[in-house]
Amino acid sequence: MKRGKVFVISGPSGVGKGTLCTELMKLYPDLAATTVSVTTRAPRPGETDGVHYYFRSDEEFDRMLAKDMFLETVDKFTHRYGTLFSEVERVLAAGKNVILEIEMIGGANVKKRIPDAVLIFILPPTLSALTDRIVGRGSESAEQIRIRQAQVETEFDQAKPYEYFVVNDELDLAVERVKAIIVAEGLKADACDVKKQYFGR
Ligand code: 5GP
Questions:
Q1: Out of 3.40.228.10, 1.10.340.30, 3.40.50.300, 1.20.1260.10, which CATH number does the structure's domain 6-199 have?
Q2: Phi, psi (rounded to 5 degrees) for 169
Q3: Rounded-to-integer distance, Cα 85 and Cα 75, Å
Q4: Ligand 1 atom closest to Cα of 105?
């Protein structure tokens, strides 16, 4: 079975990455699958352990680190997040592409460990649309909102190593753009085999 590729999807907080990925999986379930990360933050209302994240204590996170279970980890907003090797492998073994919906430091670290991983950055249509959406979510305190807004500037700086930039102006269009990237990158990966098969080199 052909092995899939790793795609990192990042973007500033509140840009709508989660909705975009959910919609992509719904429309194209055979194309790619997301992984479940580990976090030390508390679940928000409506979040389920093992579905949205594996919610773990700091001590448990340390134990997982010691066992070298993470492809990458990051400290963010006083909490820790990490991508499990086992989650990535589960999706690749099923012959699908992996989508890691993670922040940019993690994205850069994934690229270092897996050089053919593809980094995709999701952009808001405007900066004000971005801050409106964070406030609109209603789950963050005023202080958390202020911290997140200050992060936006830094986040754009961290976008430099990214290879694709997709504006999330209309969800349907953004989903199609990301799908196009995944399909094209798959064809690029196949090119070597095709050349051998058709041209003998
Ligand atoms: P939230 O707490 O709002 O769910 O996520 C905060 C940020 O952490 C988001 O940008 C999200 O994409 C990112 N994130 C979630 N899981 C991981 C992970 O495993 N690794 C890294 N590097 N970032 C993650």
A1: 3.40.50.300
A2: -85, -40
A3: 18
A4: 22
Low-confidence ranges of the chain (pLDDT < 70): 127-139, 201
Separation of CA 76 and ligand 1 centre (Å): 8
Instruction: Output the CA 58–ligand 1 centroid distance in Å.
Output: 16
Domain map (residue ranges) of the chain: 6-199
d(CA 165, CA 120): 6
**pLDDT of the residue at 180:** 98
Phi, psi of 19 (to 5 degrees): -60, -40
SS3 181: helix
CA of 1 to the centre of ligand 1 (A): 30
With residues binned 3-state (H G I as helix, E B as strand, rest as coil), the percentages for the chain, rounded to 5, are: 45, 20, 30
Q: In this predicted structure, what is the pLDDT of residue 8?
A: 98
User: Can you give the pLDDT at residue 135?
Assistant: 64
